[in-house]
Amino acid sequence: MAGPLTGLRVMDVSQLAVGPLGAAFLGQLGAEVIKVEVPDGDLIRTLLPRMNGVGTYYTSVNVNKKNIALDLKNPRDHEIALRLAERSDVFVENFRPGAMERLGLGYEAVRALNPDVVYCSSSGYGSRGPRSREGSADGYARAFTAFDSFTGPVGGRAERFRSNGHVDHTCAAVVTQTVLAGLCARERFGIAQFVETSMMQAATVYQTTRIAEHFAGGQHAPLGSATTNLVPHQALRTGDGYIAVGVNTQAQWRGLCAALGLPGLAEEARFADNAARVAHRAELLPVLEQAFAARSSADWLVALEAHDVPCGPFLTFADLWASEQVQANEQIVEREHPWGAVKVGGAPWRFSATPARVQRAPEIDEHRDEVLALIEAEPPRRDEARPRAAMQLGDLGADRSHVSS
Questions:
Q1: 123 and 100 in contact (C-beta within 8 Å)?
Q2: Which of 73, 187, 225, 316 could be a cystine partner for 234, CB 3.0 to 4.6 Å?
């Protein structure tokens, strides 16, 4: 069965992480994604570690794509890019504002050829403001958006550049959402448009609870693994490692105290409810730390689960791959590449009738002949009788006046 976006074509001219992963999600949902890559290859092909000379970062964020290598500054290749844009539903780029215009592939240029295109731009700081022309990266975005201002050890300095791609991957998901919303608007209202997001916007919105907390006068000092507004809700050291424990309700608090063999702790006024525990965090944590140090992580997980206390182990990626839970949900998948098996993350959704899928990342220029053939075989999208939504409303007797921006 085809995926939910089958029949849609995405032209992906983005590089590095945000745009490529956002487009890859669209590919997992069934869209035909054609990655336009510079002949020398996307920079992330060179990042370590590598398999057969190709960075694993590239193979993980470029799944479900076809690939053609084009030098957009070369007139012949530029013409191919324009003809592909004419035949695409979606155009994705993540360059600095103005860069695509200089290449002759900005929104207005593409829209002139294909008025029905949903054109998605993802930049570092957005298209407005004094930093709009600057580039960004995950570590910079974290630092600029105060993401790291409350991380780090208790009483210590905030940690910087401890990157795991949090902002990259969050913004990639926002790219996917933005494109889907643009496609929905096109389908419902018959209006295609320019849509945009940025790493700054994604990282800021990602922290909406911290922002609200700050402006309400809340605490923002580094707290290690702990959250600011729930206690206990953090990593706790056991006799042989760490486990994550999260108490959200009074019932769970009582369950934790029972599991610890400290039922009287639940009755103390200074720990009576979450607000009291937040206020007396410094007094409660030594008690919990002493108790948890007495038994192994495995013992505590069994005891806490028996009392319905949310908890979990700290797994390595090897543990994750071996996990029956992860395997049952296909969250790490192995795909055969011409030079060997590659493991990547699985699709983050499940559809009962239109399943998502994960296919291997392409080699550079692997699909040149196929892409050139489709350009010759298909008419430009502007030749199709669209917008669809207006036609459907017209079939029901509605006024089909079309307003174009």
A1: no
A2: 225
Instruction: Please identify, among 260, 292, 313, the residue that sits at the C-terminal boundary of a domain.
Output: 313
Summarize pLDDT for 60-84 with one digit per residue, the tens.
999 999 999 999 999 999 999 999 9
Note whether residue 78 is domain-resident.
yes
Q: Which of 40, 168, 365, 395 is catalytic?
A: 168
**CA dist., res. 231 & res. 378, Å (int):** 60
Same domain, 177 and 28: yes
State the pTM of this model: 0.89
Show the domain range for 261: 233-313
Pairing verdict, β 194-198 and 118-123? parallel
Answer positive or negative: Cα dihedral of 270, 272, 278, 281.
positive
Co-location of 250 and 296 in the same domain: yes
399 is known as an active-site residue: no
The number of distinct structural domains making up the chain is 2
- For residue 395, give both structure tokens: 């079939």
The CATH number of whichever domain residue 129 belongs to comes to: 3.40.50.10540
Q: Which of these, 182, 177, 144, lies nearest to 160 by C-alpha position? A: 144
Largest CA distance in the chain: 78
Residue 318, number of CB atoms within 10 A of its CB: 8
